[in-house]
Design brief:
The protein has 153 residues and is α+β, with helices and mostly antiparallel strands. The chain has 4 helices and 7 strands. Strands 1, 2, 3, 4, 5, 6 and 7 form a 7-stranded mixed β-sheet that branches. The protein starts with 16 loop residues before the first helix and ends in an 18-residue tail after the last strand.
Length: 153
């Protein structure tokens, strides 16, 4: 049998941190939580430095992050991360970015508008999120329908 003339297909190169982050936002808008979780390293860590008492301050590993994120689309229907409000800053460490952004949509339970600004410090290794510190506004929890992760966690 003759040898194949087609070259072997190389796996795609891992995305740069800023590109991976933009891709993650598209997945969240599509409510593709499994796809979003697939961007995480198995031992990735998600932290919420401003988490109020009774809310998770740290999630260790993809499975814990999955448990936290699975109900998200049932509570918050994201419509956009406006480009005008998305700023991705590179740092001295090429694996780490600082992101300023705003998410807008609606709260599923009440139909009321959802509008939250975020700052995130994100580290990517080998094309996967390994660390994500989410500086969100805990005062937004006063709005009915936002408690998708459960205050008892």
């Amino acid at each position: 049998m003759p040898a194949s003339t087609s070259a072997p297909v190389s796996p795609p190169a891992p995305l740069a941190p800023a590109d991976l982050y933009r891709h993650s936002l598209r997945l969240l808008l599509a409510q593709d939580i499994p796809g979003w979780l697939g961007l995480w390293a198995e031992e990735g860590v998600m932290e919420f430095p401003f988490a109020p008492p009774g809310r998770p301050a740290r999630l260790d590993g993809r499975e814990a992050i999955a448990d936290y994120m699975r109900p998200y689309p049932d509570h918050i229907d994201l419509h956009d991360f406006p480009d005008a409000d998305l700023r991705i800053h590179e740092t001295a460490d090429p694996r780490t970015i600082v992101v300023e952004m705003r998410g807008v949509g609606r709260l599923v339970q009440t139909g009321r508008p959802f509008d939250m600004s975020y700052i995130a410090v994100v580290t990517v290794e080998n094309g996967r999120f390994t660390s994500y510190r989410d500086y969100w506004n805990p005062l937004a929890l006063a709005e009915p329908g936002t408690d998708f992760a459960g205050a008892s966690r």
